[in-house]
Amino acid sequence: MNNLKTILMASTATILAGSIAFAQSEGGTELEVTHWWTSGGEAAAVSRLAEEFEANTDNTWVDGAIAGSGGTARPIIISRIIGGDPMGATQLNHGQQAAELIEAGLMTDLTDLAEEEGWRDFVNPTSLLDACTLDGRIYCAPVNIHSAQWLWLSRDAYESAGLDVPNNWDEFVETAPQLREAGLQPLAMGQQGWQQSLAFGAIAIGVAGLDAWRAVNVDKDTEVAMGPEYTAVWEAVANAREFARGSNVQDWNQATNMVITDSAGAQIMGDWAQGEFAVAGETAGEDYECLPGLGLNAVLDTGGDAFYFPLVEDEAVKAAQMELASTLMSPETQVAFNLAKGSLPVRGDVDMSTANACMQKGLEILGDGNILPSGDINFSADIQTQIEDLMAEFWAGDMSAADAQQRYADLVGQAD
Ligand code: GAL
């Protein structure tokens, strides 16, 4: 059964909101915008979008934050669109998440706006727009580049244990037992499959190397997934599982908070963690350190967030949707939002000189072109969910690395 059918069957149970999306107000439209940005840093960033939208148009941003992770929010968002209760706009990760909605004719085509405003001339890398494109038509406005391959480290945790702050994953692994002896949690990890899958992906790039990573993630080569490079990955992940034992938090930002409050040495998380450090008043390079590519491979994936606009047969709503899409892509919005979010802008032509030391590292890697496609681009939502389920089982229990490798390779073989 495909995803859409599964979602349709589940939809009645998960629809939460009624049609609050489209009241008219003083010449503008009240546009409900759904997203899963509910941590402190995320909330600060999304309010930049709302401010820009309201400052530059007559419309009103009706905030439709959905608590929980993307994995909780996406089925709610999708079932509302399928169930005839669409919002005005919604966050999703660009890539394959909206493919079935677009194929079902439920989403607005943004191609005319994108051509009029010359998105292809300034979006960098242009692969971000390709990830919004189906059959030559553009269906989303990408708002950021978020990468997942980062190790965040607490300086204080290392200093209090009398250790140097690691410069890469290997040094982290060497010092993790000493952190444990000092009564600290070596690796903070939220107990959710997507976070464990993210950590797996980051370790895979570092340990397997780029060729093997590409063979598995892009070419879906099951022989490589069963080969020695990935055996080493699974052994490294089994090791990381030990360092994460005792980290009983659920949400990713609770795990980030363990690093912020210096009770944990490190966390593998996407660059959105920077939003949390920022609202906690921490300074990159002083209070915390960040290692892109886990300090092993200076690469980043070009995942991220994009806004999609469900098809609504109302001219005022359509106009407000286009105004929001246009606002999201403006240089001012791009700078204000991404500085708060910790992500990189989708425009190559904006001034990011006030970005912190970690964002500067990301900008440099992007400038060097050391980029990879994201998991949302490489795998369908269905396969991603199955991989996340496997990760949750692996990280929470005592499944052997060899068994996990076999199951992972089987899932890679099912991906197209
Ligand atoms: C990702 C999203 C990020 C970040 C993260 C945690 O899917 O792209 O913007 O917010 O979830 O909520």
Structural features, described:
This protein has helices spanning 3-14, 40-56, 70-82, 99-103, 111-117, 119-122, 127-130, 155-160, 169-181, 193-208, 210-217, 222-226, 228-244, 252-260, 273-279, 315-329, 331-341, 357-368, 375-378, 381-396, 401-414; strands at residues 24-25, 28-35, 60-65, 89-93, 133-134, 137-138, 140-142, 150-154, 185-188, 264-268, 288-292, 300-301, 305-308, 371-372. The chain is of the alpha/beta class and 416 residues long. It has two domains: 2-145 and 302-359, Periplasmic binding protein-like II (D-Maltodextrin-Binding Protein, domain 2); 150-301 and 379-414, D-Maltodextrin-Binding Protein, domain 2 (3-Layer(aba) Sandwich), CATH 3.40.190.10. Helix 13 (228-244) packs across helix 21. The protein is globular. Residues 1-19 have low confidence and may be disordered. Residues 36-37, 42, 69-70, 93, 146, 252, 272, 304-305 line the site of beta-D-galactopyranose. Beta-D-galactopyranose (GAL) is lined by residues 36-37, 42, 69-70, 93, 146, 252, 272, 304-305.
